[in-house]
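Q: Structure tokens for this one, please.
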Amino acid sequence: MHSPAYHAMLSSPLASAHSRFPLPGDPDYVKPYVFLGGSCDPTTWRADIAVPRLTRAGIPFYNPQRSDWHPHLIALEAKAKEACDVLLFVIDSKTRAIASMLEATEYIMAQRRVVIVILDIPEGSRIDGEVIGGRQLKDLNRARAFLCDIAARHQKFCDVFDSVENAVNHIIMSHPSAQR
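A: Here is the predicted structure, written as tokens:
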């Protein structure tokens, strides 16, 4: 079990441009088990659900959602994704999540362990102040359906859930510490 300080280190904003994710061989390195990927701003699923539950369970994670995010963090995030055993992607109804869907597809096809939450966008939803409807709504939900189809064809590497709570509970129950 890891200390709250360890989890805070993984999920806190970088102190400076020279800060980095601890790498294997570093004295403070502890391999994160799960990467918290998917929809970001304005979503709060990480802070509200994933971070508290994973912390309570003592499961190390990497949280890429930061208030001081900048493009230089892309390389850091890539290293974290490489290190993690499980990649959690939340494709919610509050964002278009196009990049996240592509990223999840990439990792499924690379036969990485992926856990996905996929939520359709309801008619009339607002994303970035824009009402989503018509062809855009159809295309965004079709992309979500395609991702579900890809996941279904690669069940050996991917689990799909309809809520963040269920996905995080699955990750906690499948963690090696839960198997003891």
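A few notes: The domain at 4-12+32-178 is CATH 3.40.50.450 (Rossmann fold). The chain has six helices and seven strands.
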